[in-house]
Structure formats: C-alpha cells, structure tokens
Amino acid sequence: MQANDKTNRRRIIQLGAGVAGSLALPGLVREAFAADQQQPIGTWPAGTQGDSVFIGISVPRTGTYAVQGEDELKGYQLAVEHINSGHPLIKAISPKTTKGVLGKQVKYGVADSAAKPNDAVQAQQRFITENKAIAITGGTSSAVAVALNKLAQREKVLFLCGISGSNDTTGKDCVRYGVRQNFYGETAANAIGPALLKAYGKNKKAAFMTPDYTYGHTVTKSVNDFLTKNGGWQMVTNQVSPLGAPDYSSYLTNIANSGAEFLINVNWGHDAVLSTQQAKQFGLLPKMKLVIPYQIPFLAREVGADVMEGVYAATDFWWTLEDKYPLAKMFVQEFEKKYGYKPEWGAENAYMEFALWAEAVENAGTFYPPDVIKSYESPRKLQSMVGEVTWRAQDHQLVRPVVIVKGKKPSAMRNKEDYWEVVEVIPGAGLMQKPDAFGCNLGSYT
Question: 295 with 338, same domain?
Fold first, then answer.
C-alpha cells in the first residue's frame, strides 16, 4: 500500500469515527461545526471545548438580602443537579435535554455579592477570565442585576438574571446579552392595583416606604402611577431609606403624621422585615392597612402570620400553586425533599432561569452566544411552573403570569408554611408595558 493510500485510509477511518460520534453525541458535533463557521466571541468556544461548561453564580450570602440569596442559590443548585441528570422536571421544560446541555455537564462557582454591584462584577469577571464561564447569573439586588447586564454586554457572555424587580433591568438598562424571567415593578403594579381598588375602593391616602435604588424607585413609581391614574389614590409621603438601614423610626414618625390610610412597603429582604416589625411596634399596624406590592420571600415567616393577615401582595410563585400546575407540584416536592422546606419564589425563579437557558441552548443546537440569544428571541411557547410562557424578543423579558396572594389568618393555615392564599393568577401579556416604553435598546449581538 502506497503512502497516499494509507493517508486516505486514515482519513476514511477518521470520517467514520466522526459519523459514529455524531450519532452518539449530536450536540457536540453541532457545536464543532458551529466553531468551524464562527469567530470566537466572549468565552466561546474556549468555555465549551471540554466535557463541561461553567456558570458563575453571585448571590448575597451576607448582608440585608442574605436569606433571600441563599434561597435563590438553592434553586440554581437544584436546577444544575436536574440538568446534569436529565430529570423529568427539566425535560418537561427543555425536552431536548438528556444529561447535561448539548451533552455537556454543567459546573458552577458561587460568590457572595453581599448585594453590592462592585463585588458581584469583580466576582463574575473572575469567573469569566479564570473559568471561561459560558454564562453568569445573580441578582436579588436590582442594582447588581443592572451592573451584571453591563458586564455581560461588554464581555459578550450571557447574563441569566436572577431576582430583579426593577423596571430598568429590561427597560433602559436592558442589553442583548441579558434575559430575565421573573416579574418586575410594572407587572406587579398592574396586577395588584386592581385587587386593591376592588378590595378598598378609590380615593385613598397611601404612604410609601422605598429603598433608595433602582428597584425601589421603579416599583414605587409603577404602583403609585397605577393607583393615582385608576383609583384617585394619593401618595401623602414617600419615605426613602438606604439599603441596610438599622432603624426606621424617623421614617415611621413621618408616616404616622402623614394621614395615610395605607402603608405600602417596597423595602426588600431584611429591610422589609425590620421596617414592618417597627411599623407594628410604632402602632401603625394594624391601624394602617399594609400592602406588599412586591412580595419578599420569608417575610411572613419573619414578621409572623398575625401581621400578614389580610395583607395583599404580588408575587412570582407560591408553593400552593402545586394544586393548579403539575410542574409546580413536581418542583415543590423535589425542592422540599432536598432542602426540607417549601420553596419560596426566589428558588423557583432561579430554577426556571437555568431551565429556560438549557432550553434556549438546546433549541439553538450550540453555545455560540449570538445563536443562543436568537433562540431566546424566536417566538415559541414554553412550559413553566405557572403554565405556558414565552420570551418577548424586543426586551428579553419573559411574558409570564403574576400571582396575587393575601395573608391567611393564623387559624386558617394548613401548616407552618401556609402563609398566603392565592387570590388570582393574572396572565402576563396584559400587565406589561410596550417594549420600548422604558427605553430598552438591546445593542448588538457581536
């Protein structure tokens, strides 16, 4: 056999091996073809060349949002476990997922953001540089989410937004490389507003408590705008406090002297707990009716069911939705089995963000970022814990229901975690502003 025949035979054997491999690992072969056709961008293809891909997670594990950050982290961790094992719950959301995403196991690193944008950005920059993170996630603080939006667009690495209630995250601070699945200020306001008007009527006086950053200001504006325009309510005072304030007495004194009939508390995390507890100590509650327009995971547990009784709140998810949605039931069972308590909406939000990312990548057939982004932007119905959902291409916001809940009487609680009664599940499309209403301009793919 001549040398050129040997060479040809080797090439045929190699081609045959490639065909066999394509039958066994179609995702890997699609990714290889994409790598041949596209220029490197962000951490691609370096971050996808092994048998695993890496995601950087930054959540507050210390500070005023730590309790919510830990719950969120558990949701991410359970999602990774389910993605890597091909769990039926993940397959219900991402049908093409078997074990891993495109045949690759998902690994992750965790950093404590302490709800500080600079800490989150520095941690995620390390994950991108040192671990070749193919995606990053985090939030809980919308200031962190906005900062990570900017990092993602600059580094051309996908940002899978965790908890973020600010309108700005998919509004004026939106980016092509960021996506968000949870509800936010405008949708919360348009969901809870009608419930408040139905329950309490028009022309009421309200005092707002607002944390001094993008989440607080946009939620307060959306809620106040709705109640003012549709119900003639009046904001008699807006008490703005810094993140992590230890004492709310001066703010509560101003509220006590304002003539308000309603206390609308937009504070979040431990700030919400302290401000609500101190409002009760000051005698404002139950004299004033409390409203939580953007529900805080674990707030009811921390302040007590007696304080939350009769309180209206808007939320992303509540565990008793398992009675209505099969996937919610699967999730609640799996989460409680692993962690020993009913999941709050932060954990559900995190799980869904990773599950929907897996679906988008599998649908694209590649980790190549522009193609994954276009997968998010292509219209199709997706399954979730709260029924069918879809992505809105213009601002990368998930169109999803908002859940209105009302605090139960302690005597009506079925168990120690049965704090809220689900009043209504409101379809998301009618709650959202027009895509360009908040100044979204996604920017470029490359």
Answer: no
Query: For residue 290, which phi and psi values (nearest 5 degrees)?
Result: -85, 140
User: Residue 287: is its pLDDT beyond 70?
Assistant: yes
CA atoms within 13 A on the CB side of 244: 10
CB burial of residue 268 (10 Å; 0-12, 13-18, 19+): buried
DSSP per residue over 106-147, as a string? Answer: EEEEEEE-TT-HHHHHHHHHHHHHHH--SEEEE-SSHHHHHH
Q: What is the DSSP letter of 104?
A: B
Residues 385-404, mean pLDDT to the nearest whole number: 98
Which residue is it, tokens 């502003």? 433
Helix (H) or strand (E) holding 206: strand 205-211
Edge-to-edge strand list for the sheet holding 105-112: 105-112, 52-59, 135-138, 158-161, 178-180, 397-399, 387-392, 382-384
Q: What is the DSSP string of 70-82?
A: HHHHHHHHHHHHH
CA distances from 313 to 141, 174, 193, 291, 309 (A): 19, 26, 10, 6, 11
Query: Residue 282, class by beta-carbon neighbours within 10 Å (0-12 exposed, 13-18 middle, 19+ buried)?
Result: middle
Per-residue pLDDT tens digits for 79-121: 999 999 999 999 999 999 999 999 999 999 999 999 999 999 9
Q: Torsion-angle region of residue 440: left (phi > 0), alpha (psi -120 to 50) or beta?
A: beta
What CATH number is attached to the domain comprising 205? 3.40.50.2300
Confidence bin at 38 (pLDDT 50/70/90) = confident
Mean pLDDT on 274-281: 97
Question: CA angle 366-369-372, nearest 5°?
Answer: 60
Q: Give percent of the chain above pLDDT 90.
A: 91
Position 137: which residue type? T
User: Among 7-11, 140-144, 405-409, which stretch is predicted with the lowest mean pLDDT?
Assistant: 7-11
* Rg from Cα positions in the chain: 23
Give yes or no: residues 196 and 269 share one domain: yes
Write out pLDDT tens, residues 225-234.
Answer: 999 999 999 9
Q: Do 65 and 137 sit in the same domain of this protein?
A: yes
